[in-house]
Specification:
heterodimer; A: about 120 residues; mainly beta; seven-stranded mixed β-sheet; four-stranded antiparallel β-sheet; 11 strands; B: mainly beta; five-stranded antiparallel β-sheet; globular
Amino acid sequence: GAVVSQHPSWVICKSGTSVKIECRSLDFQATTMFWYRQFPKQSLMLMATSNEGSKATYEQGVEKDKFLINHASLTLSTLTVTSAHPEDSSFYICSASSTSKLSNEQFFGPGTRLTVL
Amino acid sequence: QKEVEQNSGPLSVPEGAIASLNCTYSDRVSQSFFWYRQYSGKSPELIMSIYSNGDKEDGRFTAQLNKASQYVSLLIRDSQPSDSATYLCAVIGDGGSQGNLIFGKGTKLSVKP
């Protein structure tokens, strides 16, 4: 299988601060990475799609200036939540896929639980 | 609006029984279909992918796809308490090779010992 890691696994921060979450594909090159958010008892909601070396494509309703995504290499994408507020508290999950794989499966990281006080 | 519909459950089955999870999707051009398992507080884990009509078996899991009916299902044979989780049906919405997954809201399965 394909392994995707995320760091940190959880973070608690004060309102107004920025938080960076890293997503790494460990054993394959991820041409595309996806960022999701999941609130309690709800399904995953796609926030944005990023292809290596290009700007991310954000879903409707997701503020690109608040959720900064960088996909500078084929194994690393970062999500920065800027000026976080309590309503940003959620479970953030990344996934990765690769054109080198025969299927178009997405492999998920373990997620990052963000709590904003 | 492309949608993926699942019964939220909870679906409760006794240990050893067959659990049947169902999913319908609205986008007729969808070509790729996936079942993910998500334990509480964890991220989704891919169980099965299916791309053509018919059945696909992998161990205790069988995925069934009927594109004419826009229906995909997951059967879990010999259900175990460790199978208790939320099962997410997902569809590649635009039919492309790197398209976005559209998730259903998930069906919560409970396997009673």
